[in-house]
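#structure-requests
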Amino acid sequence: MTNKINFIALFLVFITMHSYADRNQVVEIASTHFITAWQGENGQDHMNILVVSAILEKLALAANDEIAVFSGSICVGASKLAKDLNPLENTTFVTILASKGDGISNGFVENDPIIFKIWDDSNQMEIVVKSVSYRNDVSSWLTTGLFSASATSVVDIVHNTEITQTIQFIKGSNLFSTYLIPTNPDVSVVMKSLCDSGFLLKMEDESGKSYSYSAKTKVWTNTIGSIEKTEGYLISLTSPVSFQIKGKLIDLPLSIPLKTGWNFISIPQTVAVDALKIIQPLIDQKKLIKVVDELGNTIEASRKTGVWVNNIKTFYPGKAYKINVNSTTSITF
């Protein structure tokens, strides 16, 4: 860490001396997608913004991607990557010189929030960054996230697109799961829309923990905690309803641990999958007893022939399934 701090601090000296252009540490060239308000000029009262790492959908930004900073709707600084930005190396980072305006919308406004945008060249898409971390390794680095003339901020950028999953519930009991990590996974937050509309009666996990309403206290109590990516849940509703969850995709492959007895498993994939393909390893290990869906359909061995009969056929996203095993094991999606 000390070497990295010293390296960045030394680089800031190079910025001041304007002698860094012939070195290989810098990976930016003139922006072509983002056009600054002071295009063709040198700007004035600059703020130096150093981007040490920039991750877009879990991948580092690559050559021809661009990073820009905005003050409101005005682009006040931008750089284009000449090569990949490697977050594991101290020698690749991007500098953005943001210019202050002089009252005619040609630069940033002092103390305006710094808005970061990315041009994803491979997908030809402009993205507003959701998460920026400001480093404080050096006391003089500004960490407020606000524009300030002559200041320096050193940042790490992370952006993951928020996705919406729509799940169709039937009246009564449903087994459900999600292929997303919810933006806020707390069950009381995820289920809020169903509570507010009066559709939710109760939610339970495989261990009997619940999210339920007390008619006596008129309070919802959450003993489940948060939605877990490997888990399925039993939910009871007063009416059919279309339900939406927002978050980011679960990383695959995903191994789901199974304890002896009954388990509620999630379906972390965005597409339907052959149920037998997923649980075949449990059959081969002679650990599977039975699989049941919310309608009572099963995958189980015939008592007469011993042949496994698949009446579930397919595991669907948004659904969950009950699996009974005779010893501790796991399945993988």
